Amino acid sequence: DRNVPIMMGEHVTISDRANQGSIFMYRNGSDSSDPNSSSTPPASKYMKIINPNHPIVQGIPQDAEGRVKIFRDPYPEENLYVAPDGKKNYEYRWCTQRVTNAAPGTVVLGVLDGQEFRSCFAVVDVGGELSNGLIASNRMVHFFVNENGSGGSRRVFLALTEWGRLLFLRAAQWAMGETPQPYQPIRIKDVTPADEGRINVSWQASAKKNYHLLANTDLTDPRGWQIVSSDIPGADGLVTRTLDISAGPQAAFLRLQAVP
Q1: pLDDT bracket for residue 153 (50, 70, 90)
Q2: What local confidence, expressed as pLDDT, does residue 170 receive?
Q3: Both ends of the chain: CA-CA distance in Å?
Q4: How far apart are CA 226 and CA 217, in angstroms?
Q5: Rounded distance, CA 140 to CA 171, Å?
Q6: pLDDT at 165 over 70
Q7: 217, 253 contact by CB (below 8 A)
Q8: 8 A C-beta contact, residue 94 and residue 36
Q9: Considering only CA atoms, which of 48, 27, 45 is closest in space to residue 36?
Q10: 204: number of CA atoms within 13 Å, CB side?
């Protein structure tokens, strides 16, 4: 059915290669690539948003360089127990194509940090022209996760940050015909050092854990928790983070989450 929405995260099928199941969002399929954690040097874990007004990414917080962290850091000892020549428990791998190869109907939302000429997140709306000259009858999403075929099943998806997972859900909403509402951040920022309008949050930590700090303005809404700071490295002893609450709401609740 040509009207079924598609989300694609395999670099060899997002363009005009002859692979079965290809979607024609780009020209020059041989230019696709999968920068990853094993690259030399390892690929960035960040995406730069270049179309911030698109409904999928509208309101998503960015750092000072316009980036969103898509892949988390490894948990302590996550790759410690891996069989010789076995698959790593932690790895990340992007699905990318050259921005200049985008079909007329392809709208690039994000590019790979450090390789801004590579598109890693893009969409085609119904009626958009594809690289094979046909007109799209369904919505298409070029999603940034590349599982490296069957050999990497779900390992890369499990390495996504909360932001990466949120963008996945918003992209799925959009593909199915919905219009996601602009994301509304709580506006509490992770900063140092402490000053007026800032608070210190401390806890007894473990070097075998990473930590997330989350905030919510309504404890009755379990979906309202938002990441304030992620991938906080643990240590055996007291860990402290400083939060800027000057632009935040009058009342907010904080939650600490240990991972894994």
Answers
A1: low
A2: 97
A3: 40
A4: 10
A5: 9
A6: yes
A7: yes
A8: yes
A9: 45
A10: 0
CB 21 within 8 A of CB 15: no
Rounded to 10 degrees, what is the CA torsion of 54, 119, 159, 164? -10
Report the distance separating Cα 112 and Cα 131, nearest Å.
22
- Give me the chain's average pLDDT, please: 90
199: nearest Cα among 237, 161, 252: 252
Q: What three-state secondary structure class fits 129?
A: strand
Q: Return the amino acid letter for 66.
A: G
- Residue 29 CA to residue 108 CA, distance in Å, equals 16
Q: At which residue do the structure tokens 């995260």 appear? A: 9
Tokens of 196: 């007026």
Q: Residue 80, Cβ neighbours under 10 Å: how many?
A: 9
* Opening angle at CA 43, ends 39 and 48, nearest 5: 160
Taking the C-alpha atoms of residue 205 and residue 16, their distance in angstroms, rounded to an integer, is 50
Q: How far apart are CA 105 and CA 25, in angstroms?
A: 8
**What is the predicted pLDDT for the residue at 149?**
66
Higher pLDDT, residue 144 or 147: 144
User: Which of the 8 DSSP states describes residue 84?
Assistant: T
Answer yes or no: is pLDDT of 213 > 70: yes
Nearest one of 68, 34, 71 to 51, comparing CA atoms: 68
Q: How far is CA 6 from the centre of its chain?
A: 18
Give the pLDDT confidence score for residue 35 in this predicted structure: 95
Peptide bond into 260 cis (omega under 30): yes
